Amino acid sequence: MVGTMSAGAAHRWAIEAHGLGKRYRRRRAVEDCSFRLPAGTVCGLVGPNGAGKSTLLGMAAGLVRPGAGELRVLGAAPGTAGTLSRTAFLPQDKPLFATFTVAETLRLGEELNPRWDARVAERIVRSGKIPLDARIGTLSGGQRSRVALALAFGKRPELLLLDEPMADLDPLAAHEIGGLLMAEAAEQGTTIVMSSHRLADVATMCDYLVALADGRVRLAGETDTLLSAHLLVTGAHAAGGSPPRLAPHTLVESRVTGRQVTALIRPRGPVGEEWRVAEPDLEEILLGYLRSPAAPSLLTTSARVDDADAPTEGETAA
Ligand code: ADP
């Protein structure tokens, strides 16, 4: 599996984007995105509404043509026959035929997919106690999601792209579907990318995170590495005075409340004793980057593309 030109090496990366961009008329949807996603990860694609998540997923699924840059999915161009058969994409509206029964829906999956795994698809449906003779139109949102996921996993994809899979589910159904996703991904080694505008929906499931804001990558990498790369520091702030210095650390965001200043930093060396130090959670880190568009993005070593021409969007996490 070693060697830069072999197919095996290409498969190390489920997705590789180099300067990727897409515009709709004048509107920027995705701009200058350079990152890569290691195969075998469960990745949360997060960011506010309109950040470009669906556009990025659509490009990876081969449904949206990039306007700039290059995108590789499982080592090849998205949308080609070889990539399509190894990728499953579940769009937000989970398109299923309402008048079909569950059994008919699975049979359709079988007819459309040469590598169909009926055992996996039926297991997913049965573990949700969904009768095979029920019509799709009579199912709850959670049950419909389960059938859609059964169709997606029955295809035995190497890469599963899910656009807001939890959006219309109640917390109980979301929890159940989340567990199902993790179990199937672990058993089949599927790489999963799931978008959400709510970090909480995906944070507990994902070992990798790509955060977009305004079409750009703001954070990308292993959640553990992203967490350990940041500190939340609090110090005294004299009224009217300038805030205490935070150099040489990288400042992501700082806020003054009364006589206190709180800052999210990427530490470079020890933090001065005048600061009280805490470890931020993912939500605090993500919000810090979203509120501070000027703060430099952070891509961990595994997420950075080794491309001298690629824009230097971030820096290597320690
Ligand atoms: P997200 O999935 O993060 O909510 P999208 O990728 O859907 O973001 O949208 C990114 C931007 O591109 C938004 O400003 C959106 O209005 C615009 N956009 C997306 N799809 C289209 C389209 N088909 N036509 C025109 N504008 C679009």
Automatic annotation (TrEMBL):
Residues 15-239 form the ABC transporter domain. One of its GO terms (molecular function) is ATP binding. It comes from the Bacteria. Keywords: ATP-binding, Nucleotide-binding, Transport. This is ABC transporter ATP-binding protein. It comes from Streptomyces gamaensis.
